[in-house]
Design a protein that fits this description.
2 copies of one chain form a homodimer. Chain A has 198 residues and is α/β, with parallel strands linked by helices. In chain A, 34% of the residues lie in helices and 24% in strands. The interface between A and B is medium-sized, with 30 and 30 residues.
């Protein structure tokens, strides 16, 4: 199989920009898949900040990270990702984050009525753009198989289409003959060309 | 820049399935970019078949391939790609082609009124599916910046959505904040699971 699983594809993109010792955000911790992935890459000298509104998600993630020996470099917050990140993150990280991951929808094996929603997702994405360094990446995995999923995916895509180029490059990866397969959006914050020429 | 140029991305996919000594088709030769790329990969022991309806395209491509020393493994045909491939290709290649590339639209620096069109493009794609081996790939680069381009792209995407899964896996790669940037579709002909279990 040559065409990649889109969750793996998101990880491959992140590997391109996140160094050992780097700083990343998992904006939707869930069961901690991406948090663990990010923690392994940044290692003990880096930092991963993880947000989720559900205590159940954070407990499961903490347990998983501890059992794999990667909790030291991770800070978990029970915090709605659309709230100001400045209340949680050190100010010197503004425009210095290497990567932000979003995995939308609901918590697998959790309450399917607790879902991410268009307005708060986009508010969180706006903050991610602001906190990201030049050359950094945001990945968003979108789901349409649950109630509200299609509406959220469409809102996110519309918002992406509104972002200015060349400040941001954005790619959608979408399966064409599978209903409700997840899609992947990658947003790259481009280097300021004027800055590069100085 | 982490996000790839989609023409390069198409090549990266093709590299995964096309071996030295393999057989590939460039269904839209144009100025020979993809033909040359395919010819370099298959080498002297492989074969590339190239179709185009314009003599101008075939002459430019032949000249380019000859100057780079890769014409030996290439056979060029002034032939509409929607016509039966069985009139050109040896019958033993049926279901044995490793890769087929399409780069739609019009010939760069040529007559912009001579364009690929929905009905003939899809007829050619249908044949590509039939001639492809299991595990082989079709890549299609779609353009919407010329008259008729959007209509063609929409027809191709609609046709892709109608193909059966799991026989075919299909991924669309699309820039979200650039009007008329090309898009890339990759179709993978999956191995027959029943056959694999025998």
């Amino acid at each position: 199989m040559v065409l990649p699983n889109l969750l793996h594809q998101a990880h491959e993109y992140i590997r391109c920009v996140l160094p050992a010792g780097g700083v990343a955000i998992d904006a939707t911790v869930g069961n901690g898949n991406d948090t663990l992935f990010l923690a392994k890459i940044v290692g003990k000298s880096g930092t991963v900040y993880g947000f989720d509104i559900q205590d159940q998600a954070l407990r499961a993630t903490r347990k998983r990270l501890e059992s794999e020996g990667h909790m030291k470099q991770v800070q978990l917050f029970q915090y709605p990702h659309q709230q100001p990140w400045s209340e949680i993150l050190p100010n010197q990280l503004r425009q210095n984050i290497d990567a932000v991951m979003f995995n939308l929808g609901y918590l697998p094996h959790g309450d399917p009525s607790i879902i991410t929603k268009p307005q708060s997702t986009i508010a969180a994405c706006e903050q991610a753009l602001e906190w990201l360094r030049s050359g950094g990446l945001i990945t968003l995995v979108l789901y349409t198989g649950h109630k509200g999923g299609t509406e959220e995916a469409e809102s996110v895509l519309k918002w992406c289409r509104s972002l200015p180029h060349p400040q941001f490059s954005i790619m959608l990866h979408q399966r064409l003959n599978r209903t409700h397969a997840p899609s992947l959006v990658v947003i790259e914050k481009n280097f300021d060309r004027k800055m590069l020429c100085q």
